[in-house]
Amino acid sequence: MKRLGIVVTLVVLMGLAGVVTATAQTTTVDFDNPTPPGSSFSLLDGVLQGIDFGTGQWRWETAYSADPTNHIFFDSPLGSSRTFQFSPAPRTLTSMNVFTTGSSGPSGTLTLSDDLGQTVTRTVAMGSMQLVTTGWVQPSTVVTVTFTSGWNLGIDDIAYTAAVSGPPQIGQWSGPFNWPIVTVHMMLSPSGQVLAWDRQDGGGSARLWNPATETFTPVPNGSNLFCSGHSILADGRTIVVGGHVDNFVGIQDVNVFDPVAQSWTAAAPMAYPRWYPTATTLADGRVLVTSGSATCSTCKADIPEVYDPAANTWTPLTNARLTLPLYPFMFVLPDGRVLNAGSDEASIETRVLDVQAQTWTMVDSVPVGGGSAAMYGPARVMKSGSPADVDLPSTPTINRTWVIDMTQPAPAWRETAPMAFPRGHHNLTILPDGTVLVVGGGRTTDGVDLTQAVYEAELWSPQTETWSTMARMQVPRLYHSTALLLPDGRVLVAGGGRFQGYPQIDQLNAEVYSPPYLFWGARPTITLAPSSVAYGNSFQVSTPDASSIARVSLVRLGAVTHSFDQDQRFLELSFQRGSDSITVQAPANANLAPRGFYMLFLINSTGVPSVAAFVRL
Ligand SMILES: [Cu+2]
């Protein structure tokens, strides 16, 4: 077969509902047609049929041993590994034929690995050509070939694919757009506008960004809101807890932003100063605040507090005292308890907090990684990458991914397929269809080494529990970068920077990512939705696309900083189709969806989401 040269096959990639197709072209490099330069035993240097064999690494030869045609082998008996690089890259290595001529033993062990960490290991027996298929799904740039008996390895018929990658497969970035601030904090208001601020001038830098007009309105606040925590209150106002005096020194200030009046109000201060705390909206609309450093690097605010917006009072949970790392990942569970699923800066045991009883219960005593986390369904949380503390010596980050299902009798983190890229300081953002987007971050924990930045977005499927590599953004976004789902289904990605001594990482700009679903055809539309709905009730949503609606989801308005969106959560709703409307079943109770505002999305049978309607529960 290999004398046919480049073999072209068309592979149909399955799209949602079979509507989306892409073609993948397979190229097979057989070293026969065309014949490599020079004569048999010549060095194979440079690029041949889309593969760069480097310099002085490989030779080619005519028939030898088990292979009656041209093939390649190591250029010398020294060493047990060689590399080649796709050019252009990346490409997905699908298979190769190998044989061994080794005289020292009956066989050798072949390992193929790539720059993404994909590997395949195979024993190669003597006497015949053997096909090695990789099973790799991610495209590689560099492939390393290791064989335990070095140059005895012969290689032929290297097959790779170049998947067609356009916006329907990998989405599309727009920008970067110049912004007046490095967006360390950003959150969505029920008005559709984004509230954001910088480190410089703290609350004085606060602005509202209008996605429709792409304009800013200054909304300065007198507190230093840098390194605060925040969530969206049940009435749609944003609550901001704590902030910054100095590194590890927080403030007790609590500030509330009204998106209608576009003005701030000071609320009752917390009992403890907090720097790097997490604010979590509870089922009943009260707000739980956990962690944060109080007055020094070892002085954590270890007593959680609960804010009652109606009474404007704080209640310390003195019996629930527990030292947690900074910016803990907290999620309200269907039973009303609050899960601590990790933290921005350190791997920790997993516990649940019963706010009423003021007790912590261990869930999983084995600390695993996770530098960001997202709740992708009731009681289901996923996390990936490395927590990253910029005050510790830099270490390589990881690409590992875990899920936990809190409905299980003995819940524990379960590892799923890794991201293509190791990351720390990345952001996980839940999308209208329940998939999870990861953007930004880097291969080291320092948060400032721009050479280690990861530009590719990746999209995680809760069905397959696997990641797919998406389009690359333009700008490195490391420490203090942020990502926020917009009501139109795009993701606003901004910030990165404001780490003392490293002005080169400051990003005074934003980019907007359009996920693949925005390129799959016409969007369903919502013509009318109720502004508020009651738990347990059904409600009507008018849409001319009722017959094609396949899913209905709620996504809580995001409030993100330091790699973690403190308020985002995802919930799918059951529904029935009418002729020009659908009847949707509201969440049964407030534990499933704490009181407040949500983006309601209709998703059609192709997987395309509507623009959201804001609905208050
Ligand atoms: Cu910070």
Written description of the protein model:
A hairpin with an 8-residue loop joins strand 51 and strand 52. The radius of gyration is 27 Å and the shape is elongated. Helix content is 1%, strand content 41%. Strands 3-4-7-12-9-10 form a 6-stranded antiparallel beta sheet, with no helix packed on it. Strands 18-17-16-15-46-47 form a 6-stranded antiparallel beta sheet, with no helix packed on it. Strands 1-2-13-8-11 form a 5-stranded antiparallel beta sheet, with no helix packed on it. The protein is mostly beta strands and 617 residues long. The chain contains 1 helix and 52 strands. The chain folds into 3 domains: 2-164, Jelly Rolls; 168-519, Galactose oxidase/kelch, beta-propeller (Methylamine Dehydrogenase, Chain H), CATH 2.130.10; 538-616, Immunoglobulin-like. The structure holds copper (II) ion. Copper (II) ion is lined by residues 227, 480, 562.
Question: Care to give the gist of this entry?
Answer:
By secondary structure, the chain is an all-beta fold. The model is unreliable at 1-22 (pLDDT under 50).
Query: How many strands, which pairing sense, and closed or not: the largest β-sheet?
Result: 6 strands, antiparallel
Q: Give the low-confidence spans.
A: 1-22
Are any ligands bound, and if so which? copper (II) ion
Could you say what the CATH topology of the largest domain is called?
A: Methylamine Dehydrogenase, Chain H
Layout of helices and strands, plus pairs?
Blueprint: E1 10-12, E2 23-29, E3 47-48, E4 51-52, E5 58-61, E6 71-74, E7 81-86, E8 92-100, E9 107-114, E10 119-125, E11 130-133, E12 142-147, E13 153-163, H1 167-170, E14 172-178, E15 185-188, E16 194-197, E17 207-210, E18 215-218, E19 229-232, E20 238-241, E21 254-258, E22 263-267, E23 278-281, E24 287-290, E25 293-296, E26 299-300, E27 305-308, E28 313-316, E29 328-332, E30 338-343, E31 350-354, E32 359-364, E33 372-377, E34 380-384, E35 401-405, E36 414-416, E37 427-430, E38 436-439, E39 456-461, E40 466-472, E41 481-485, E42 491-495, E43 509-514, E44 538-542, E45 549-556, E46 559-561, E47 564-565, E48 570-573, E49 575-577, E50 581-585, E51 597-604, E52 613-616
